[in-house]
Amino acid sequence: MAEHHIQLPLSDDVIESLRAGDYVYLSGEVYTARDAAHKRMVAALEAGEPLPIDLRGKVIYYVGPTPAKEGAVIGSAGPTTSMRMDGFTPPLLKAGLKGSIGKGGRGPEVRQALQKYRAVYFLAVGGAGALLSKHIRSAKVLAYKDLGTEAIRVLEIDEFPAIVCNDVHGGDLLEQGKAEWRNADVLND
Prior knowledge:
Layout: E1 3-7, H1 12-17, E2 23-32, H2 35-46, E3 59-61, H3 89-94, E4 99-102, H4 108-116, E5 120-123, H5 129-132, E6 136-143, E7 152-166, H6 173-182, H7 185-188
Parallel strand pairs: 1-2, 2-3, 3-4, 4-5
Antiparallel strand pairs: 2-7, 5-7, 6-7
């Protein structure tokens, strides 16, 4: 497994170089969006309307941050379960999205769409929202303000730690881990 320090937005060359299991440290801009924002974006695409953000080359972090304490940029910012966005992900990948960050696995349609549209899915550590928020330098609401914590924000992140879960080559870290566990010598004793 390799380690990559990546400046966002994602380029095709960087995406091609990543493999499931690689450690990454992301710096630059990411968007935040969860279920309600995804639903609105896909509805806009289906209606032929423009999106409120340009997704080309961008990464979406599945997070609904808590309110910031006084003097802080953002509150706790841990990942949301990604599978909840699976139904909305393929159309956003088609619109140019190149990456997403969340927790848990993705369904087969999303894994296929990641390969088709040359995008990557990163895992962030669930339960570590307070620690992850220390890698966020700024946060600003861009769209769907009425959604509160689920509004689309732009975050400036610095050395945000994640792991490549699904790569463009069909690699799936969670499936690899399951296979290794099934084949472990401990189970064969």
